[in-house]
Structure formats: structure tokens, C-alpha cells
Amino acid sequence: MLRGALWKGMHNMEINKNIIEVELGKLYAIWLREFKVFLREKSRLVASIFTPLMWLFVIGSGLGSVVSNPSALSTVVYSTAGEVGSEIDYQQFIFPGIICMSVIFSSVFFGSYIIWDRKFDFLKSVMVAPVSRTTIFIGKTLGGMTTSIIQAAILLVIGLAIGMHYTPFSIVTIAVIIILLSFALTSLGLTIGSYIESLEGFQLIVSFVVFPLFFLSGALFPLNNLPGWLSILTMVDPATYAVDALRSTILGITGKNPFVVDIGILLVCVIALGTIGMLSFRKMKAV
Amino acid sequence: MITIKNLVKKYGNLTVLDNVSLEVYDNEIFGLLGPNGAGKTTLIHILATLIKPTSGTAIVNGYDIMKRSSKVRSSIGIVFQAPSSDDMLTGYENLKLHSLLYGVPAEIREQRISEVLELVGLTQRKGDKVKEYSGGMRRRLEIARGLVHKPKVIFLDEPTLGLDPGSREIMWKYIDRLVKDEKITIILTTHYMDEADFLCNRIGIIDKGKIIALDSPWELKGSLGGEIIEIELKDKEAESKDSIELLLEPYNNFVHKVEFNDKEGKAVIYVNDASHNLPIILKAINDNSGSSNGVKSVYFRSPTLNDVFLKFTGRHIMIQQQDHAEGGFMERYAQYGNK
């Protein structure tokens, strides 16, 4: 009797293990496809690295020559905690912001690439398979995160050239921030992509989502001393908190918000945008 | 294998499927024949659980499409009208992706992929990116993909749309072989008469959301009765349908029906045993026409499905040129731009 129950229990465990394996296989398949396409579309990778570098070197140096007044920068960077006496120039100041910019662009764009998947019926072929919408959503999000993380990693290495240095601890922290931001923004992109049916809508995403997220994040300017309206707008931009946390981690300066607050708000964004994305995927029409 | 019960699909006021009931048997090739916009693709999408019907339901492979959609999905394969494989991936990678999505067990995955590649003749090209494939190869890859999880039923939506004649014949060969080798049921939609005629065991003619005829191709053609004679007259103005009908009245034991095509000035006469009766008809017309008129040319043939379609709908099936099959990403972008 007992042995029978035990055997049955083990048998059920075996079945459950198989179900989990199959489900993970589906998730892996969706992620792997995104990753391979990313690796093969070289132009996308090159462009996604080149644009941030333009900002870093052209705007960073160009605008940097105007705001390089040391006293101005020291009010910009009102406390160089940890590294007393180390001067931070404008280019270094915007470096964490540029990392976030690359994450913003690649994550939101990645999400909205689903418009292409739909246009060319690839999405339909996935949706007709016995795969839950949640699995599709998570697989896609993981794919988007992977591409964002790879691009950010390349930029971090380039950062060494402009005098950035990292410790093992700061690398882990940076990774956490980038993972949270890319998860939230890929979810956002996928949500938008699940509603937009035409490629023309893609331009709207660029103008009304990607650029505001970037400009309002404080990637290019310090957040203190902003006019009231702008200050409020920066606060509703999830990227603001990632820039702030990244700046304090990479440059070793005190951020606008305590680090824990930044991470906390990012986590809330991840959960909120992730949930919204999942729900929109469930509602999304297959045909 | 599939039982469709009173399916209705409406978009607002537009009725796309109008109370369709239908039975598809095990291991047959069933053809849905109809013009573009008749509701063929909608019907297939409903059976594949991609869209929900307004009312009615269907049982696919023992599972109700409304209640057990996940089970239905696992047991069917579907090939869409436009190739849906990712063209940045290789043929093999597309098949691997889909075998994972369908939960094909790891132990047999590689073997299944090799089998389907062999079946559609793409083993040599499995390592090439799909964007390097021809239109025909892409279609065959789609079929391989639809088969990789060993479905009981496979839906083929316009499997040869936009293919050149050579590729079409190859495709037909593969489809024919599927039923014999894989023991599956195939439902295909087409607006090519010859395709339906060549491939299908049974055909449902669908027009404006209704199944208007359902039988084997030869029974359908037989239902027209005998053969068709087309007669062109010297003076297109002089004759009318009425006068020819009157002339042929005495021969109604073998003349079923007379139609008159005003535009071409042709009389279309449905008869039994045309090879014997044609001279009688010609004589009847010539003897009763003035010297200036009479038969200019004559042509007789066996009925085609096109005639069947004409009989049931009063219209010719319309062939629209459409080609989704070719091109890489940028070409497809250009195609999209033109629409």
C-alpha cells in the first residue's frame, strides 16, 4: 500500500520533471532564436555600439569642453565620495548614462521587433505551437536582455579607455542594474509591440518612447538644480534610477537617491512592466 | 479525424464563415477549393485554434478546439500561406526550434529532424540560411517543420501559391508521399483547380463562407454530366441562346443544357457522349442557319473543376497573382512597402 503510494509519487515526480524539461526547452528555443538572430545581424550590433560611442566621444568631448570648468563640475558632482580629489570630466560623467542609453535603445527596439515577427508570420508559427503566451513573453524578454547586456559589456570595456575602472564588486552591481533596466524596458517594448500592427508605428515608438526615456533619464546632465517640471518628468522615467545607481557605482559619487531606493524602484518597474507585458501577450491576437 | 459543427465566424456585419459543417476522414487529402476571400484560411485558422469562431465548434483529432486548444495544437501541423520560418536561421535551426516548441523528446529529436529533412529533400541544404533558399525550398521547409512533431493532421494553406510549375509538381509529389509514408490526414486550401484535382481525395467547394459542394473530384465533374462542347458562330450577332436552345430541343435525350456566352459569341453545350453526338449537333445548327451564318469553330472537352465551380457559383474562380515566397528581409520590406 505504502510502497504503491510511494511508487506513484515517484512516478508523478518523474512526469513533473519531464514537463519542466519540456517547458524549459520551449523557453530555451525562443531565447536561442533571438540570440542567434542578434549574432547574425551584424549591422544591428555595429549600429547599436556605434551610436552610444558617438554620444560618448562627440557629445562627451564637444560639450565637455564647455562644462569642463572644474568648479562647475564639482557642483555637478557635488561629492566625490570615496575618491577624494579625483576630478571627473564631462565625458566620464555621462559614461554611465551612455551605458543606460544603449540599454534603453536596444531593449525597447528589441521589444518592438515583434512587429516584424508578426509581419513575416514568424510569430504566428510560434503562437500556433503548444506554447503558453507567458513562455513566449519570458523567452523574448530574456533574449532582449541578453542583447542589451552584451552591448553594455562591450561599452564597459571601451570605458576603460576613458579612465573607468571596475572592481569585481562593482561589476556585479553594474550587472544587476543593467539586468533590471533591460528586463523592464524589453517588457515595455514588447507591450507596445503587441499592440502596434503597422511598421509606421515603429517611428512613433522612437519619438515618443525611446528618446524621452533617454533624455529624461539624466544621462547627459545632473539631476539636481533642474526646473520643477523637468525634475518631475525625470522622476517618472525608470531609466533615471538606473543612471543614478550606475553613476554612483561606476564613478563612486553620491547619487541623487540612495542606492537601495534606486534598485527598489527598478524592481517595482520590472514587476509592473513585466506583468503588463505578460497580460498584453495573453490578449494579443494571433492572426 | 475532424468534425466541424455549425461553425460561424463574423467580423462585425461581415460573415466570413456561414454555418459550416464538415467531416474530414482519416488518412485522406481533403481540399478546400474556393476563390480568395471565400473563408478557406479563416476556417483553417479556426481549426488550428488561432482564432475563435463566433459560434459552433470542431473536434480535431478527438479534441474540442474550444476546450482543449493546447491538445489540438500539439496534434496538428500547419503550413501557412506565407513562409513563416526565420530566414536568418538555417533550415536545421528552424526545425530544431520547432521541435523544442512542440516538446519533441530530446532522445528522438535529431532523428526526427533528419527524417523530415530527408522527406522534403533538404538534407543537403540544412546548414544554409533560409534566406538563401528558393521559394519552393522554403515551402518544403515549412512542410518539414509542420511534420517534425509527428502530427496526426497537417493543414496546408495554399501550399503552391506563387511557385513556378516545376516546383509545384515537386511539391505535389511530396504531399502525395506524405499521406502514404506518414499516414496522416491532410487538409489543404487552394484556388488552383488542377491542384485540387490532382491531389485531393475529396473536395469541398467553398464560396462566400459556405460549403456549396462536397465530393470527390471525379464525382463533382461527373455531376455536370458528360462533356462540354463550345461552338463559335460565324455571325456573333445573329444567334442567341434562345434560338440555339430551340434548335437543340429535339435532342434533349443527350443535350443537358445550353449556355450562351454573349461576349465571345460562343454557345456552351453540355452533352453526353460528345464524340458521337457532336456531328448531329453541328448538322442541326448549320442546317438551320442562313448561308451567311453557321459554325465557325468547334471545341469539345471533358469538364474541369473550373466548370464545376462555374456551375455551383455562376462565376469563374478568380486567380490573383500573389507571391509571398521569395526574398530576404529587405526584399520583403520592399514588398510590404508596395502593398
SSE topology:
The complex is a heterodimer of chains A (287) and B (339).
Chain A: H1 2-40, H2 42-64, H3 70-76, H4 90-112, H5 114-119, H6 122-127, H7 133-159, H8 168-195, H9 200-215, H10 228-235, H11 238-251, H12 259-283
Helix pairs in contact in A: 1-7, 2-4, 4-7, 4-8, 4-9, 4-11, 7-8, 7-12, 8-11, 8-12, 11-12
Chain B: E1 2-11, E2 14-24, E3 29-33, H1 40-47, E4 55-60, E5 63-64, H2 69-75, E6 76-79, H3 91-101, H4 106-119, H5 135-147, E7 153-157, H6 165-182, E8 185-190, H7 193-199, E9 202-207, E10 210-215, H8 217-222, E11 227-233, H9 241-248, E12 255-261, E13 266-271, H10 274-287, E14 295-301, H11 305-313, H12 329-338
Parallel strand pairs in B: 3-8, 3-9, 6-7, 7-8
Antiparallel strand pairs in B: 1-2, 1-4, 4-5, 9-10, 11-13, 11-14, 12-13
Helix pairs in contact in B: 3-4, 4-5, 5-6
What does this 3D model show about the protein?
The complex is a heterodimer of chains A (287) and B (339). Chain A has 287 residues and is mainly alpha-helical. Residues 70-85 of chain A have low confidence and may be disordered. Helix content of chain A is 77%, strand content 0%. In chain A, helix 4 runs antiparallel to helix 7 (133-159) and helix 7 runs antiparallel to helix 12 (259-283). Chain A contains twelve helices and no strands. Chain B is of the alpha/beta class and 339 residues long. Helices cover 37% and strands 26% of the residues of chain B. Chain B is built from twelve helices and 14 strands. In chain B, strands 6-7-8-3-9-10 form a six-stranded mixed sheet, with helices on both faces. In chain B, a hairpin with a 2-residue loop joins strand 1 (2-11) and strand 2 (14-24). The model of chain B is unreliable at 320-332 and 335-339 (pLDDT under 50). The chains are: A mainly alpha (287), B alpha/beta (339).
